[in-house]
């Protein structure tokens, strides 16, 4: 976990990718400083005027939640055999159940646990888990 004292909040740290200083409109730099404010009030507030903002950082509203930014494109799916974690499989979000099972069975580590055993049941929890019961 990062400490507030290690967060880069100065004007030089918030330059965009081509090295130009941040724009007065804020953009990602303003959102970073705004979200860093509760844990690093002094450092985040010190750079606020450098973004061309007026007033204190404590009077600005919290950044709005954007579900598109929080959406995952790829998940690490846990593969259990008889309730014990035996491996992990990477899969795209919303991948069909059959394809998830195919990837799980194709993994050499998981295949070694299934070798010579009868599959009794398979349970797939989308984007989270594959559980295989064997005898």
Task: Please characterize this protein's 3D structure.
A 4-stranded mixed beta sheet has the order 2-1-4-3, covered by helices on one side. It is an alpha+beta fold and 135 residues long. Helix content is 28%, strand content 22%. The protein has 2 domains: 4-66, no CATH class; 74-134, Ubiquitin-like (UB roll) (Roll). The chain starts with 26 loop residues before the first helix and ends with a strand. Strand 1 and strand 2 (84-92) form a beta hairpin. The protein is rod-shaped and about 70 Å long. The protein has 5 helices and 4 strands, in the order H-H-H-E-E-H-H-E-E.
Envelope shape: rod-shaped
What is the helix tally?
Answer: 5
Computed CA radius of gyration, to the nearest angstrom: 24 Å
- Strand-residue proportion: 15-25%
Which secondary-structure class do the elements indicate?
alpha+beta
* Distance between the first and last residues' Cα: 43 Å
DSSP, total strands: 4
Question: What ranges have pLDDT less than 50 throughout 5 or more consecutive residues?
Answer: none
- For the largest sheet, list the strands in their spatial order: 2-1-4-3
Main beta sheet, described? Answer: 4 strands, mixed
Work out the helicity level: 25-40%
Mean pLDDT: 78
